[in-house]
Amino acid sequence: MKKKLLTLLMGTTLVMGLAACGGGSDTSKKSTDTGTKTTTNNTASAGDASKIFSQHCASCHGDNLQGQVGPNLQKVGSKYSKDQILGILKNGKQGGMPAGLISGSDADAIATWLAAKK
C-alpha cells in the first residue's frame, strides 16, 4: 500500500513539475491598419538569460541551478557546449526534459549562459 501511494505521489509531482516548466513567449500580433501579420521575436541577451531561466526553467532545475525534478545545471557548461544545450532545448532529452519549451533568441541566450557555467 505504501509503495502504491509513493508511486502515485512521485508521478503526480513529475507531471506537475513538467507542466510548470512550460510557458510561451509568442509575441505575434496582427496589424489592424494594414491587415498584415507582424511577428516580433523576443530578443534576449545573455543578461536576460537569468530572467528567462527563472520564468521557464527554475521550477524543474531550481532557482540556483541546483536541480529539483530536473538535474543540477551549476556546471553544465563543462559537460555540454552551447550547440549541444541548444539541441537539448530544441529536442528535449530522454528522461524528462520536454522539447521546445524555449526557442529562438530566448533559447540562444539560455544556451550561451548555461554553456558558461563551468
TrEMBL record:
PROSITE patterns: CYTC (PS51007), PROKAR_LIPOPROTEIN (PS51257). This is Cytochrome c551. Residues 21-45 are annotated as: Disordered. Residues 33-45 have a biased composition (Low complexity). InterPro entries: Cyt_c-like_dom (IPR009056), Cyt_c-like_dom_sf (IPR036909), Cyt_c_BACSU-c550-type (IPR012218), Cytochro_C551 (IPR054782), Cytochrome_c550/c551-like (IPR051811). Residues 1-19 form the signal peptide. PANTHER family: CYTOCHROME C-553-LIKE, MENAQUINOL-CYTOCHROME C REDUCTASE CYTOCHROME B_C SUBUNIT. Residues 44-118 form the Cytochrome c domain. The keyword Electron transport applies. Pfam families: Cytochrome_CBB3 (PF13442). Keywords: Electron transport, Heme, Iron, Metal-binding, Signal, Transport.
